[in-house]
Amino acid sequence: MKKYIFAIVYIGMVYTAYASVQPPYAIGDSIRGKVWVVDGDSIRLTHADYTKSEIRIFAIDAPEYNTDAGRQAKYFLIDTVKSGNRTATCHIIHIDPYKRFASMCILHTNSGDIDIGLHMLKNGHATYFETYKSKSVPTHLRETYKAYRKYK
User: Fold this and answer.
1) N vs C: which end of the chain shows fewer Cβ within 10 Å?
2) Confidence class for position 96, pLDDT limits 50, 70, 90
3) What is the pTM assigned to this prediction?
4) Is pLDDT of 93 > 80?
């Protein structure tokens, strides 16, 4: 009986470790998946093969979730994601110290595509935050993001 329980626990630990590892993507790759909102500036993509990617939305910073503004930002993003088919394509710009992919993400909705970062900035739920320098981000897009520097 003890061997049986040990085997189940061991298999569960191996599965958990495997499922939590970031898929092997690199800077410059585009990835697509179903969107799950973590907070106002982070999402999780679940891919067709059920692997998951942790995404930090590039160039924005939303308030921390333990504040009223942070909860508003998260629920605004959840409502935005629900307006479409919950899929997004993310272009990886940087891999941060937490092994999240800092990415520019486009949410696919029935009424058109939405740049998640710019949408959060325009609606006052995030501020411009440029930590990752990347030549892959066009200057005009950087300038558009910079125009929305502060929370409402």
Assistant:
1) N
2) confident
3) 0.77
4) yes
Q: How far is CA 10 from CA 1, 15, 20, 43, 90, in A?
A: 14, 9, 16, 29, 34
Q: What one-letter code names the amino acid at 80?
A: T
Residues 6+ apart with CB under 8 A from 16: none
DSSP labels for 121-133? HHTTS-EE---S-
Q: Left if phi > 0, otherwise alpha if psi is -120 to 50, otherwise beta: which for 28?
A: left
Buried b (16+ CB within 10 A) or exposed e, 130-151: eebebeebeeeeeebbeebeee
Measure the N-to-C terminal CA separation of the chain; round to a whole number of Å.
Answer: 60
d(CA 45, CA 49): 11
Residue 25 to residue 52: CA distance in whole angstroms = 11
**Single-letter amino acid, residue 75:** Y
What the block records as the tokens of 146 is 């910079």
Q: Which two tokens stand for residue 56?
A: 């930090």
Q: What is the pLDDT of residue 134?
A: 58
11 vs 88 pLDDT, higher one: 88
